[in-house]
Structures are given as structure tokens and as C-alpha cells.
Amino acid sequence: MFSRASNRQATGDLPKTEGGLDRSVPSIISADLTVTGDLSSAGEIQIDGRVEGDIRCASLIIGISGSVTGEIRAERLRMHGSISGQVYAKSVFLASTARMTGDITHESLAIEPGAFMEGHCRRSPLPAEVVATDAPPQKRLEQITDAGLNSAAS
Questions:
Q1: Where is the segment annotated Disordered (predicted)?
Q2: pTM
Q3: What range does the domain containing 42 cover?
């Protein structure tokens, strides 16, 4: 009943990735949490709270109570909440409860009746580096600071 052999068999079949993490479970930002800063994941992120920053991931789900202010780069985006910013994703789904303010660049787009969309939609085959999830988003402040230092040194 509680033998070690059966425990090994039960846990041996779980999908593992680098560092022993199980990627079938999403990283969750719960409804009572606000994150200020950039998020990056090679797996799935589910947002039920608020994120103020850029997001880069393989799959992003924004729940009904979730909101994002910033740029999103993902393979798949499923939106039930709100986004204010630019979206670059291969597959985008806006549910009837979604509120999107900004432009969407996509390969595939589905919008349910009732969804709010203010911005431009552009169908474009996205190059792999646009939605790549292995590198964290670059910080715009660092780019501006570096540009200012380079021009001041000249």
C-alpha cells in the first residue's frame, strides 16, 4: 500500500524540465496580487491579478479579473480580462469579457462577440525571435540610459 516501488512509479511519469520543474502547471498571479516589473517564462503564465510591465512566455492566460499594462510576446494568448499595450503572439483569442486597448500582431486571431477591441490588428507571420521565450524582455530604461551615456561620451 505504501511501498517505495509504487511511489517511484507514480512520480516517475511526471513531465519534468530543466531543474526538475513541472511545466504542465502554470505560474499564477492571483487576483489579490499586483506585480510591477517584467515577467518571463518558458512555460505558461495565468494572470488573475494585475501586472504592470512586459510579459514574455510560451502561453499566457488572462483571467476575467486579470489586467496587464505593457507589451506581451507569447506563442499563445487567451484573454478574458484586460490588456493595455502591444501584443505580439502567434495565436490570440479574445473572449466576450476581454478588453483590449492597443495593437495586436498575430498569425491567428479569434474574437468572441462582446469583446472590446480598440487598436489595430495586423496579421503577420511572426519571426521566431519576436515571440522567443528563452530571453527575458529588455528593459527600456537601460536602453535609454545606455543611449544617453554613449552620446554624452562622444
A1: 1-23
A2: 0.70
A3: 22-148
Whole-number Å distance between alpha carbons of 66 and 56: 16
Question: Which cell numbers hold the place of 68?
Answer: 496587464
pLDDT at 143: 46
Is residue 105 assigned to a domain? Answer: yes
Residues in Cβ contact with 113 at an 8 Å cutoff, skipping those fewer than 6 apart: 96
Residue 113 forms part of a structural domain? yes
Domain contains 153:
no
Mapping DSSP to helix (H, G, I), strand (E, B) and coil, where does residue 5 land?
helix
Q: Is residue 4 part of a domain?
A: no
DSSP 149: H
C-alpha cell at 136: 527575458
